[in-house]
Amino acid sequence: MDMEAFFALHFDLPREGPGTEADVAWACQLAGVGRNAAMLDAGAGPGGDVNALLAAAPEGSVLTVDSHAGFTKTARARFAGDARVTARTGDMMAQSGPFDLIWCAGAIYFIGVTEALSGWRSCLAPGGAVAFSAPCLFQDAPPEAVVDLFEGYPVPNADGLAAQVAAAGFTLLGTRVVSDAGWEAYYQPIEARIAELRPDADAALVAVLDEAATEIATWRAYRDAFGYLICVVQPE
């Protein structure tokens, strides 16, 4: 994939993954997040979940970390003047904490669930938790279009995700499926950007736009077969 074209599509979007404020609120409540919690938004993109995190911990703090400087720049601008928010470009696995909550929406699969949880264990404050969303199969035999979408990535079912959590020595406190509203909150702005960019797109950008359009169409056609599962976990 041409990354310049990818970031042209994703520039200044409100969020970089599916989800809603209600998802964050549910995870924070289950994790027992307090009013003054220190939180890491790992793989934060432009900071689409920061307001919801701060609603759960109004006297707390959020460190957003993303590997793409453009997303960090957007997050800094979005929360300029709010001393509770620090936006940093870097490795989401290289933060020291301690954090009462590590929130990772849709980015943990880049590392692997077991690997990421194992790496974050030392960053958690006593009683701290990790909440993450990850791809999940809802059917034993998903349609070929769904398999093709993930290009060989071994998407687990809910039991598989639970096993990956256990392999890291964590306890699964609860799970929640990301709603259709959460997916549309992510996809509708992308669709608008595709329509805006397509008339003048070169070949590299057309390829990225087509891939994104295919992803959206696949989810809408087969959303009963796959989606994202939010997991809230704590070290054993």
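The above is record 1. Record 2 follows with the same two-line structure.
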Amino acid sequence: MIKIIDLRDGRDSGIFEKLASRSQIEYGDVLRRVEDIVGNVKKEGNSAVIKYTEMFDKVSLKEEELKVTPEEIEEAYGKVDRNLLEAIRKARENIEKFHEKQKEKSWFSTEDDGVILGQLVRPIEVMGIYVPGGTAAYPSSVLMCAMPAKVAGVGKIIMATPPGEGGKVNPVILVTACEAGVEEIYKVGGAQGVAAMAFGTETIPKVDKIVGPGNIYVATAKRIVYGYCDIDMIAGPSEIMVVADDTAEPAFVAADLLSQAEHDELASSVLVTTSEDIAKSVKGEIEKQAERQPRKEMILKSLENYGAIIIVDNLDSAAEVVNRIAPEHLELCIEDPFSFLGSVKNAGAIFLGNYSTESLGDYIAGPNHVLPTSGTARFFSPLNVSDFIKKSSIISYTRKALEKVKDDVILFAESEGLKAHADAVRVRFEE
């Protein structure tokens, strides 16, 4: 069960090193196997995809069955609960509204002597979403991956997801993809699905970027194909940190810690509090609430291995812990959460106040839930519209403008030993 660690005595009991160790995965055999899969898909296309689908998903598909048909999508709509469909549409609207505010525009500026400088902003042409199957089939992730791309103006959005029993795709996933504007859906999962989108096959188009969650095989495949196309990030296990003072509600805090622990045995749920009473109360609530969770066994392993309740002297010390761990999700269950914001340097998404549960961010609030994990919030941002655009610099000089700087350009070029660069300027002013 989750342990209470008192940092007020100056000792951390190795908690920071233990949390960091979650992302230190030994790829070894996985890397070699995935390299083979990726290489074969690159070389053999559809035939390799079909072979691996039968091998790993136990589904035999013909080439013409790889792509989901309009009839299958129509059938899926008939299987999805109407209330869930309305929730999906409400979430889609909120996500779209939030990401609309992130859009960037091309710009130009005119300088002296007719110099024109600028930046051209263009969306990528084709984007691929990877969606896991089975128990990890999350329609919310489809929305979070597709909507910022749609807002950015990506030309075509496709999706790859493994087929289930009878060669069918999860109906909720199909419906969500359709609602989010995904144009083509393919029944292919795992490393072979990533490779198919990265290189293209006779049926599946080559994409410019792949986004979406997946297991270690998917993550490894994304590492391998990076460079042939772009990827979003290599996501690690999920994590939450709650900062609480004596105004926090222990039942709320416990529930939010449990919500992350049910993801994965490697998930991390950490409470940092200035109150010893809150620490003890939350621990008691966790033990009580865990008993009624269907994923109790997974939750308990997660909390035992990577959970912690950390007691600190004050909120300044709490901020130091936050910034050291750089959590994916950060909840501020304190009296004045807005005043604490200035102390937060590293966090993926920040939830302010006792009623801003992390679950809001996962589903319906609007900000993206594809977030940096394993301390990468120190240098990564949530998935956003900028991830689906590319920028070109614009430079236009007149003869008069070039003449003003020609000697400086020549000096730079010759200092670097690049005479042809210097001559490219000189030739424009020779008789």
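The first helix runs from residue 15 to 20.
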